[in-house]
Amino acid sequence: MGEEMSFWDHLEELRWCLFRVVIAFAVALVGCFAVLPSIFDTVILGPAHADFFLYRWLGFVYGAAEDVDIININVTSQFMTHISVSMWMALLLVFPYLMYQIWVFVRPALYSREVRGVRSAFLCGTGLFYLGCAVGYLIVFPIIFKFLTGYRVSGMVENQINLNSYMSLMLSMVFVMGLVFELPSLAWVLGKLGVVSRGMLRGWRRYAVVVLLVLAALITPTGDPFTLLVVFLPLYGLYELSVLVVPGSRDGAGGSSQDDGGA
Asked: Who wins on pLDDT, 172 or 253?
């Protein structure tokens, strides 16, 4: 390999990695700002329309859907929303390049036998993040939005959904699900560090089901068991995927017996 880099060489390399990411983000931001008005109604406000695909699929659960009018009561909200959503979209687009630059920076510090594993972790982590964001936008947020906009504490109180409230809930759900979907990558890293093992995760399966059910209930504040199941299944699938990707337990007998008891 090359000569050993000094602290200042590493700092210079980090500076250039950050510079390239900032440039890519700026270019993506300009593009997203220009494109956003043409996709805002169909994509960003898609879950507010009655013909959103999930509402058609779940019509037998929720009944006939109706359009939800989004209002604005702040003079600057529409302009600031244009900027903030463009920034989040740009971050979403630049995320793979950000992960690549992180990989470029840390790769010289790895042994050759570690390179393949860390590269796989970066690639899988990026793919799972996008998958989580898609689940958040296509499933989790529409279900929560449908429930909250239809909920009435009193028939005399009319729901008027503010633009800022809508955007805050949507962005939080999308990116929270993106982070939650990083669970298998995190489990793999912790397994490599010896913090967790496959036998340990198998033994904790019963407790994990309870925790994931509570988490699903917190994400979807509705008593509808179908809605709860829609959110719980991806979370449980992530846990089982984590069990598969984590290195096997060295205390196989203990892990197996716990797993048998959990089954």
From this structure: 172
> Torsion angle of alpha carbons 199, 205, 208, 210, nearest 10°?
-160
E runs forming strands in 155-201: 161-162
User: Alpha-carbon distance 102 to 27, whole Å?
Assistant: 19
**Length reported for the chain:** 263
DSSP code for 198: H
Summarize pLDDT for 115-147 with one digit per residue, the tens.
Answer: 676 777 778 888 889 999 999 999 888 888 888
Cβ distance 101 to 20 under 8 Å?
yes
Of 58 and 142, the one with more pLDDT: 142
Element (H, E) at 71: strand 70-71
Question: Can you tell me the distance from the alpha carbon of 51 to that of 56, in angstroms, rounded to the nearest whole number?
Answer: 7
Number of Cβ within 10 Å of residue 204's Cβ equals: 17
- Other Cβ atoms closer than 10 A to 167: 19
DSSP per-residue letters across 24-64: HHHHHHHHHHHHHHHHIIIIITGGGSTT-HHHHHTHHHH-S
* Helix H or strand E segment including 7: helix 7-39
Mode of pairing for the β-strands spanning 161-162 and 70-71: parallel
Torsion on CA atoms 36, 37, 39, 45, rounded to nearest 10: 100
Q: Under 8 Å CB-to-CB from 171, ≥6 apart: which residues?
A: 85, 88
Condensed to tens digits (0 to 9), the pLDDT of residues 92-117 reads 999 888 888 887 777 776 667 666 76
